[in-house]
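Hey team,

Sharing the Alanine dehydrogenase run so nobody has to redo it. Sequence (370 residues) first:
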Amino acid sequence: MIIGVPKEIKNNENRVGVTPAGVIELVRNGHTVYVQTIAGEGSGFTDDDYIRAGASILPSIEEVYGIAEMIIKVKEPIESEYPLIKEDQLLFTYFHFASYEPLTHAMIERKAICLAYETVEKIDRSLPLLIPMSEVAGRMAIQEGAKYLEKPMQGRGILLGGVPGVRPAKVMILGGGVVGTNAAKMAAGMGADVTILDNNLQRLRYLDDIMPANVNTFMSNEYNIRELLSTHDLIVGAVLIPGAKAPHLITRDMLKQMRPGTVVVDVAVDQGGCIETCKPTTHENPTYIIDDVVHYCVANMPGAVPYTSTLALTNATLPYALQLANKGWKRACAESDELLKGLNVVQGKVVYQGVAEAFGLEFVPAENVL
Ligand SMILES: NC(=O)c1ccc[n+]([C@@H]2O[C@H](COP(=O)([O-])OP(=O)(O)OC[C@H]3O[C@@H](n4cnc5c(N)ncnc54)[C@H](O)[C@@H]3O)[C@@H](O)[C@H]2O)c1
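Structure output:
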């Protein structure tokens, strides 16, 4: 198969879809790989690294899309890429369709095969291609939250871990999945007083078992969330309902209950956000303030640490990319329930229920398009 790796063009996105190590594996399996020039630069890989691994370098994004049967990238295509996408071209990348209707319509129109990293699902319902980025974003949420709690960044001016004789900051984490667990580990390690809320009691039992003593668990419901808002300094949004928009657990009126300088880091912003007042921001301009509450809502947090993120992501995506390249998407999806769940839009049809429901579009089961 002919595989294309374009350079990411979303604001401050420095990750790349395939590393030189991945190129070696793909070429060893008989495939041809074209990489756009300087696609790997932001992650520390030069064109020469790719050439030595067996790839060919193309000078423009148009040529990469023009030649490839399968595109492997990181973020969803942006508007300027839509016209480059060809009928029947396989796109293997993050899409997050449910949070952006124009992208869904554009991909339906292009009649491409959109296999979304975020909905590839294992039999235990875990999401193997979201996990590595969630690990990065969860850890970063605390690093960023701690920074924006500083007074010059318009935060409350409180040190996360406190000092002897002074209480540490209080961190509230909404959602105890991968992001939430990694955030809790970092915050706890820095000495903060941490509370994780989840609506899955089984998950709370597990977290209660494994977390250190400065992490408490709490059932997620409106009453409990309201109770914590006025005393917590840093709030991390980390809920997920797979393939659907995030529920607004903190509504606009609740901001009034928070103290001035409270920081919210809504990691779930890529699925619409679990804090009503969150709207996507970029690394160039990561925060804004509403009702004296600092909002950090960067939709591609791992993009700021591309070295770590590219390696973490491609460690997870490469085995699936190999299956797709070796068997073709139809056979690979027919033989793997994990990949089948990744299909979202196929040749003009919406084949992922959460996406169809989000925009009132007709749903066609993925099995029917194989
Ligand atoms: N902004 C970024 O750069 C970035 C990076 C990675 C992940 N994310 C996003 O972070 C979010 C969380 O991802 P994850 O991997 O941790 O998901 P996950 O599935 O591991 O965890 C989600 C958790 O939310 C819980 N949950 C669901 N409804 C809830 C509710 N009403 N109250 C409390 N908890 C609830 C679930 O029980 C689950 O434990 C996703 O939206 C993901 O797309 C964003």
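The first strand starts at residue 2 and ends at 5.

Ping me if you want the raw files.
A.
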